Structure formats: structure tokens, C-alpha cells
Amino acid sequence: MLQVYIDDSTEAGEVLILAGYVASAERWGAFSQKWQEQLSMRPRWRRFKMQEVAAMDSDEGWERARHHYKIIKDHVLADVRVAIPIRQLKRVAAALALPKWAADPYFIAWKTIIALMIVSNKQAGFNQPIDFYFDEQSQKGRLLDTWDHMKRRMRIRDARYVRNPPAFRSDDELMPLQAADFVAWWTRKKYLEKGSILDFEALVPWETEDANHGHIYAEHDEAAMMELLADDFAKRIGFNVSFLMEPKA
């Protein structure tokens, strides 16, 4: 069973980022043990939160962040990141006269995350069911309200990969969600600095080379969102995302 842990990071009026990591249940178990050991080092941290580390802005905080990132790299199979530009989505929503819930950036981001994971699962040769876990603050009601729509639109041969509705948990409860917080924070920072997340540069500034795991990226421009949402709401055929995948050896 593959498990995907996702968190969100937003910049009001600019972009919504959904990002996280995918690994097997066994790998996540080993990850959580190492993560807890790192948290328990003195001074003991109750949890890892990237925003709190950045606010601390101390050598100690950044050094702890480096150790946590090494644990991530040692255990995950791939990162998954989606960027939804909010102003462009508003224009698409107006042009298509979308219902309010469908114009929500979370809807298209969740839809994209699920589609990317199904495609990458098959391309990497895993062909395993996927369970999705989101931070409980990530608009739980809004996703569950649209889940039935997304499930109905899923092709039968793809639906077998997503058998369960997404689960929502606290990052205090599930440590893989703290790793998702890490990648979501850095991905938003990259987007705001460069206007894009579609590259394979190192995620963090203390590395000169990219991490040794796969990458599943999607960044929608206005045309891609128009095609994707028109397929759902105007019965047209089409799916277009910028997709890159390098499966881990």
C-alpha cells in the first residue's frame, strides 16, 4: 500500500500549494521512528513546523531542519507538488461559469494530486492502491463535499487505485504530515521567488544537488486549467498538466 501525505501552503491572492511525499507504509513506519528520535533530541521539540523554524532563524533551528530533511530523503519514494495560480483560476471560473465549489483552488489542486499519483503509480510500475492523508486544517469539508464528483469522473481502471476517501489527521498525530509541511513551505517559497515550481533545482539552499528521490510536479497555467475544468463541466475530453517524473531506482 502506498501512502501519500499532503499539506497546503498559501499566499493570499497568489498561489495555493499542495505538497507532500509518497512512500510505502513500511517506509513511513521507519521514517516516523527516526523522526521522533530527532524530535526527542535536546532541546526536545514537540513537533516540526517549518514556519516556526524560519521564524526562529537561528543556527540551531536550521541545523535541526537539515537533520529532519535527511530523514525525509532516506525514506520517501517521491515528492509530489502542485501549484495553482489563483488569479488565473478566477478568470477560468468566470469564463466557464463554474459552480462556486468547482472554482475553489483546493478542488483543482486535489483533483490534480489524485490524477498525478495514479499516473505516476502506473508509470513507476507499482500498481498498488494509494491512501491519501491530508492535514486536518486543509479544508476538510470542502474536499469531502467534492469527493463524490471526483470519484464518479474517475475511469474504472483508475478507481481501483483510490479505494478509500482521503483521510484527515493532525500533524501532531502523524509525523509524515510534518514532512509534508516541510516540502509545502519550501515549494511556496520557490514559487514566490521564481514564479514556478517546474524545475529540479535543490529544494533547500544548503544542498547543491537535488534529493535522491522521484519528483511529481504539476503547475497549471490558465490554458491547462481551462481544459481540465471544461472536461468536467462542459463534457469535453482533455487533460493537460505539466508532468515530470523520475522514479527512484
Give a verbal description of the structure.
There is one protein chain. By secondary structure, this protein is of the alpha/beta class. It has one domain (2-25, 77-233): Nucleotidyltransferase, domain 5 (2-Layer Sandwich), CATH 3.30.420. It has nine helices and six strands, in the order ββαααβααβααβαβα. It has helices spanning 25-39, 50-56, 59-75, 86-96, 105-123, 140-153, 156-159, 176-194, 222-233, and strands spanning 2-11, 15-24, 78-85, 130-135, 167-169, 214-219. Strands 5-4-1-2-3-6 form a six-stranded mixed β-sheet, sandwiched between helices. β1 (2-11) and β2 form a beta hairpin. α1 runs antiparallel to α3 (59-75), α4 packs parallel to α9 and α5 (105-123) packs across α6. The longest helix has 19 residues, at 105-123. It is globular, with a radius of gyration of 18 Å. The two termini are 18 Å apart. The model is unreliable at 235-249 (pLDDT under 50).
